[in-house]
Design goal:
single chain; mainly beta; 7-stranded mixed β-sheet; 4-stranded antiparallel β-sheet
């Protein structure tokens, strides 16, 4: 059984910082890729950041580069998203997701397992 549980969502002021965490429960075969996605009001999910847990390779959406950092704690089996200089457009429901292998690290169709999400609201 694979389970992902996000935490850390909150309401933060414009320009503030927040750290999200994704706790992963999985069997003996670890899925390789973990990503954070977000959904603002509307149907589309935007890939924010992803990490290859085998070698630490990371990818970021242009909109969050130099502000967000994805990292893993292998011992705790968590993947965190540190967010700085938050903007109004960063508001949304944030989800973490797992994929075994993929070609497009920030495309949601590549990911097979999803958490329930945690809400981030950036306010003035």
């Amino acid at each position: 059984l694979v389970q992902l549980v996000e935490s850390g969502g909150d309401s933060v002021p414009f320009g503030g910082s927040l750290r999200l965490s994704c706790r992963i429960t999985e069997g003996t075969r670890r899925l390789k890729w973990v990503a954070w996605f977000r959904r603002a009001p509307g149907p589309e999910r935007e890939g924010v950041a992803s990490i290859d847990r085998s070698d630490g390779l990371t990818y970021y959406a242009d909109s969050v580069k130099d502000r967000f950092t994805i990292s893993q704690d292998s011992a705790a089996n968590t993947v965190d998203l540190q967010m700085h200089d938050l903007k109004f457009e960063d508001s949304g429901m944030y989800y973490c997701a797992l994929a075994r292998g993929l070609a497009q690290p920030l495309q949601d169709y590549e990911y097979t397992n999803w958490g329930q999400g945690t809400q981030v609201t950036v306010s003035s």
